[in-house]
Amino acid sequence: VITVLCANPALDVTYRVDRLTPGDVHAVYSVQRRAGGKGTNVARVLRQLGEAVRLVAPLGGTDGERYAAEIAESGIELVAVPVGAPPRTSVCVLDEDATVFNEAGPELAASEWDAVVDAVLQPRPDVLVLSGSLPAGVPTDAYARLIRPDVVTVVDAKGPVLAAALTARPHLVAPNVAEAQDILGAGDAAQCAAGLRSRGAGSAVVSCGPDGLVAATSDGTWIARPPRALSGNPTGAGDALTAALAAGLARAAPWPDLVRDAVATSAAALGRDTAGEIDLDLRAELLGQVVIEEVRDAADQHS
Amino acid sequence: VITVLCANPALDVTYRVDRLTPGDVHAVYSVQRRAGGKGTNVARVLRQLGEAVRLVAPLGGTDGERYAAEIAESGIELVAVPVGAPPRTSVCVLDEDATVFNEAGPELAASEWDAVVDAVLQPRPDVLVLSGSLPAGVPTDAYARLIRPDVVTVVDAKGPVLAAALTARPHLVAPNVAEAQDILGAGDAAQCAAGLRSRGAGSAVVSCGPDGLVAATSDGTWIARPPRALSGNPTGAGDALTAALAAGLARAAPWPDLVRDAVATSAAALGRDTAGEIDLDLRAELLGQVVIEEVRDAADQHS
Predict the structure, then answer these.
(1) ipTM surpassing 0.85
(2) DSSP states along B228-243
(3) What are residue B80's DSSP bridge partners?
(4) In sequence order, what E strands does A69-228 have?
(5) Could B22 and A99 be called an inter-chain contact, meaning their C-beta atoms sit closer than 8 Å?
(6) Chain B residue with minimum CA distance to A96
(7) Are A171 and A154 in contact (CB under 8 A)?
(8) Of the candidates B13, B26, B62, which has its C-beta nearest A102's C-beta?
(9) pLDDT for A186
(10) Is A117 buried (19+), middle (13-18) or exposed (0-12) by CB count in 10 A?
(11) In chain B, which residue's Cα lies nearest the Cα of A26?
(12) Across the interface, do B17 and A102 touch by the CB < 8 Å criterion?
């Protein structure tokens, strides 16, 4: 079983409008409400990939009940940790672009976070995914403290939370290139991937959006990209990438296979408007077409 | 007792952000949730003016309960008509400007609307305020059908709903100048006020935002404006105007007094960030300073 922690769950509201004009009053012509948060999206994609998923989330209030009722219908095993405050709302206004408004979310009490930690680590996960922001009131090293040598842990975080997680030597980190540069200072995707390994990650997959990804691992370094430019909604492509990586690690897939799958699955998220969904046909089509190249740097060629 | 119908109640959510940029992801740094809808705001201001208020609203779901719980704390008598669907949400994103996203709201069944009509007319109101949009599924002449010769009725509506209401000869209509022009075709505020009377309104108050208002009545026509330019959030100024007019009619105030009060109360809404609230000190200060002028047109001077 793959355990996914959604530490800061959300209700995602999507508004479609004709054209967003600051200062105007807009009639919303379609409304969609959906359980969200990065961990939630990762769990949904894992479910679409056929994996058994256990999703842990702190949930309170009637909006928490709404979130739980929706997840219950999806076939994901939800461990709802009862807390006082409801989940935050995130509003996405769609015209030609997506304009997003993210509430900060509630502050968790120390005892509430302790209950979340217990729910994550018992029973012991085969693979653990730590994805997205931490709620207020929770220390920056909260992901770091959840990383155990005997649990394969994938971290998709940014800023100080990612920096702290690296010190706990996670199996894999999967930031995008901007997030990696943010904590490393500079460098291209390959340099960032190497830099994340030298900061403590067992492996590092750095995603570059439509340009694919770089994976730096103990078995080698690969650059991989989709076979063609794909249009669509990029929201959730990073979560699909994380899901594919977790699924591959759970099956102990060889890195080249895992990298191909990650690129195809991430690109397949563009085929759907909703974060947390992928186009399985598109994924199958792309899987054999991903362009992959092993990188041999100076050190490798020396050996 | 003044009865206010809020036919399409809302939960108003206000997000403060640094600067709204279409296509960007925004961190929301403060969130306010509040029972809303124009009728709700009118009822709140009436309560601040010391009037006994009965607010009728169709309410369903947990968001309906949230709305009811909040109104219960305000001293307003709420008649919640149970319906299947929850109230709509309206999101206002505040930076320098206010950018608003209005959900359409749920469709009411015919039987649900019948229950609303019963709740509005029994017991018979002294003054009835019909303010804001109608929910989907309700015919355009729904306000018109609520207008009775023996009930002093104030209508703040627009478009076909206002046009239909005029045919039922309401005691007073109070659109803004753009809304009046929209149904009359053209004309300045004074011409619009006269036009609304000739279309069926007993009296017409046409508001011009910071420039005050024109009131055309059977006792005469007045132009009134605030003594000085006031800065602040204009959201809800129209609802404060409607509330002052209803309160004045309930007390059978002479038109010149009523007009002064309406201008002062509307301007006092600028002193508060939240729709449905007025600055009572500012209202008291402005009340004696409103600039009012009686208009004598050709017909009047002839008599």
Answers:
(1) no
(2) S---S--TTHHHHHHH
(3) B57
(4) 77-82, 88-94, 98-103, 127-131, 152-156, 172-173, 203-207, 213-217, 220-225
(5) yes
(6) B23
(7) yes
(8) B26
(9) 87
(10) middle
(11) B101
(12) no
Q: How confident is the model at residue B297 (pLDDT cuts 50, 70, 90)?
A: low
| B176 close to B193: Cβ distance less than 8 angstroms | no
Smallest CA-to-CA distance from A85 within A58, A103, A47, A114 is with: A58
Beta pairing partners, B206:
B214
Q: Write down the pLDDT at residue A298.
A: 43
Min CA distance, B75 vs chain A (Å)?
Answer: 25
Chain A: residue whose CA lies nearest to B101: A26
- Residues in chain B closer than 8 A to A104 (CB atoms): 27-29, 31
Q: Using CB atoms, pick whichever of B28, B99, B100 lies closest to residue A103.
A: B28
User: What's the rounded Cα separation, in Å, for the pair B297 and B197?
Assistant: 15
What is residue A272's DSSP assignment? -
The neighbour count for residue B19, using CB atoms within 10 Å, is 10
Annotated catalytic residues of B are 239
**Is the Cα torsion angle B72, B76, B79, B84 positive or negative in sign?**
negative
Cα–Cα distance for residue pair B71/B153, rounded to 1 Å: 23
Which among A156, A239, A261, A279 is annotated as catalytic?
A: A239
Spatial separation of the C-alpha atoms in residues A189 and A259, rounded to whole Å: 15
A35-64 residues touching B, CB cutoff 8 A: 62
Which single residue is written with the structure tokens 């709700």?
B40
Check A28 against B103: CB less than 8 A apart.
yes
Q: CB distance A23–B97 less than 8 Å?
A: yes
Question: Which tens digit of pLDDT belongs to each residue from B68-99?
Answer: 999 999 999 999 999 999 999 999 999 988 89
In this complex, the residue of A20, A66, A103 whose CB is nearest that of residue B31 is A103
Q: Which of B39, B122, B115 is nearest to B83 (CA)?
A: B115
- How many pairs of residues across A and B have Cβ atoms under 8 Å apart? 70
Q: Does A30 have pLDDT greater than 70? A: yes
Average pLDDT over residues A254-277: 93
Name the residue among B20, B25, B104 with its Cβ closest to that of A28: B104
Say whether B281 sits in a helix, a strand or coil.
helix
Which tokens belong to B293? 């002028």
CB contact under 8 A, A101 and B95: no
- Is A239 labeled as catalytic in the residue annotation? yes
Tokens of A50: 């056929």
Is A301 a residue whose pLDDT tops 50?
no
Minimal CA–CA distance to B271: which of B231, B298, B240, B229? B231
Strands ordered across the beta sheet of A10-16? A30-36, A10-16, A88-94, A98-103, B25-28
Can you say whether the dihedral through the CA atoms of B117, B120, B125, B130 is positive or negative? negative
> Which of chain A's residues have a Cβ under 8 Å away from the Cβ of B21?
99
Give the pTM: 0.81
